[in-house]
Amino acid sequence: MDEEYDVIVLGTGLKECILSGLLSVEGLKVLHMDRNDYYGGESTSLNLNQLWKRFKSNDAAPETLGASRDYNVDMIPKFMMANGALVRVLIRTSVTKYLNFKAVDGSFVYNKGKIYKVPANDVEALKSPLMGLFEKRRARKFFVFVQDYNENEPKTHEGMDLKTVTAKAVISKYGLDDNTVDFIGHALALYKDDSYLEQPALDFVKKVKLYAESLARFQGGSPYIYPLYGLGELPQGFARLSAVYGGTYMLNKPGCKVEFGDDGATIGVTSEGETAKCKKVVCDPSYLPDKVKKVGKVARAICLMNHPIPNTGDAHSVQIILPQKQIKHKSDMYVFCCSYSHNVVPKGKYIAFVTTEAETDNPEAELKPGIDLLGSVEEIFFDTYDRYEPTNLDASDNCFISTSYDATTHFESTVDDVIAMYRRITGKDLDLSVDLSAASAAEE
């Protein structure tokens, strides 16, 4: 390996593959390596036999579950906001041509022991059983304000500077009660806890607006889309993009030791006795364990079922958010459900994930509020994994380390990390201005 690369990317998780593709498009010379012989890293998709081997060691899966090859079980399951940043990245890079998407049927929120469809605009607010008559009117006024809000048109600001006024103050202006604030903040704006209430309201209003615009885009039951055959298709789509722009891929490379010069900055990566030289390294936390710290733990249940989740209108794919206050937890809980309509399980089968930021070492008990919503379950697997964040100064050692995937079942925080890393690696912002109306990012 005598060549020198601008960037060596280690690991083929989704974040690493997106960055590999984007940096190749930017004109950088990229070498992408992985110790595994498959794409996806932590965010891979498993067939039924692989799922069984991972969680039940040598047991064989029961024949009643169908053929192994008909399963594509995401290890980090997440839906995409139809107008969100990941869709913009896919359109900007034309990775959409490698993938087919389908709208997700439903978006629900848990409130006082029941699940409700999430109202996202003034029309839905007036119909929602989540609120009483007077609260519906107040919520409608808030949604109209959000829909009309334009950062560049002061007349839409209703006398508020959202760069200084807090989210809490905006909510107070409309007199919304705690229940309404709960579902708007957690199920529409997708905040993981209530700290956003004390922050400037601009981000909050933009997030609610994004939800409503994404919902309107496909006239479906939710603002989310999801690729046919699961998320395992995404890393491979970005790998193809990187290859088109000259990126080199090497799977099944054991070791992958990052080498450093006397100044503490990376000079290359060694595998199987050969060193590839580079100026920068991009990797997931597992490749540089001494430059990361544990910041949390995710608890999850993977559930195989032969029916849709009750009380969701027989939806084949749904997200249910259980806000932290509703389950007396420090962070939200998420239910992700998909089925044969997205080609991830055999006909008649459904798969549900229940995830949350772990607060105990007992995922079975901790995840019970979400599991109780599912009805009968054929098979259930419990799992926990640690979350890591980088502790290094990437400007000094030229090592750019992604954060571990969180418990959310949507991609907003994942893409925020990718965009921030891209900015630090290249010194420029990622241009995500695309014509969403002209792009067909989903196929019904």
Automatic annotation (TrEMBL):
Picking any one GO biological process from the record gives: vesicle-mediated transport
What's the short name of a Pfam family annotated to this entry?
Answer: GDI
The record's GO CC annotations read: apoplast; cytoplasm
By its UniProt entry, which PANTHER family does this protein fall under? GUANOSINE NUCLEOTIDE DIPHOSPHATE DISSOCIATION INHIBITOR, RAB GDP-DISSOCIATION INHIBITOR
Which purpose does this protein serve, as stated in its record?
Regulates the GDP/GTP exchange reaction of most RAB proteins by inhibiting the dissociation of GDP from them, and the subsequent binding of GTP.
Similarity comment text for this entry: Belongs to the Rab GDI family.
Q: What is this protein called?
A: Guanosine nucleotide diphosphate dissociation inhibitor
Please name the source species: Daucus carota subsp. sativus
